[in-house]
């Protein structure tokens, strides 16, 4: 029997570096408390403090700038509620299977981030005309065995994304300083893109005049459609339209009568406009009831459906989300060699007794 007030745990995928899933099926809030926010790391946690923390902006700029943490916190702030989803979320569901952390459905979380628009910081340095990309480097680093060398975690953004007013350098999460394991003291937040772009523990920002060639840009976080070669590869960027059933659990036993089915849906472009549910393996679909869909840019939408069932037996439940950009979850995912961007129609099975 579950004890009153019992709480779920994160699901551990790896200990060193630490990679843990959010217990997404057991959380009902649209804001995830930081103890339940999923953890995705490539390297051990860096050793740094905020005591002597400075953020340089260098490279192809008119005037290199060095910001203190206090400088940044005294600038006009912006608050954004946004989904952060690992691009490998649901990797475990790909068929045929792919290598990598075998995330199930919990490499996703959501909360409220407060910080300064990256555009505001970049404007202070003056951007030279030949600048093409902005490289954001974190303090975390380590050895990559595939390259037999040590690298820092670094990613680039094209100028149009870096200068978008909603791309922010965040210093708070849910009204408190960002927890150390999630990027304290400063973390980049790129709403609408998979979370590999939201670099933690920012060390420096550099303008360059070409495409960034770091391994986390050109080897990892790339869609490889072919199993044996790199032809037709292209980068991972925006979040695909997606949905997850939170209640009931897969393979759960239900009673006849009224059962409430609940879940979330999200997208990286526009807003969620519809979540359909099917009990006949996709032959017919019925709309679910959406919550907060009208003001949910960058956020997931909670949905629910009241299911009255009188016949005992085994059932397949499927959900399919659509967004305002006319994107719809596919029946089958776009298979790729590294297992990114899984967004096929969500499916569970239940038994009614």
Automatic annotation (TrEMBL):
InterPro entries: Ig_E-set (IPR014756), MoCF_OxRdtse_dimer (IPR005066), Mopterin_OxRdtase_euk (IPR008335), OxRdtase_Mopterin-bd_dom (IPR000572), OxRdtase_Mopterin-bd_sf (IPR036374). Residues 42-214 form the Oxidoreductase molybdopterin-binding domain. GO terms for biological process: sulfur compound metabolic process. The keyword Oxidoreductase applies. Pfam families: Mo-co_dimer, Oxidored_molyb. Its cofactor is Mo-molybdopterin. Residues 239-351 form the Moybdenum cofactor oxidoreductase dimerisation domain. SUPFAM superfamilies: E set domains, Oxidoreductase molybdopterin-binding domain. One of its GO terms (molecular function) is sulfite oxidase activity. This is Sulfite oxidase. PANTHER family: SULFITE OXIDASE, MITOCHONDRIAL, SULFITE REDUCTASE. The keyword Oxidoreductase applies. Keywords: Metal-binding, Molybdenum, Oxidoreductase.
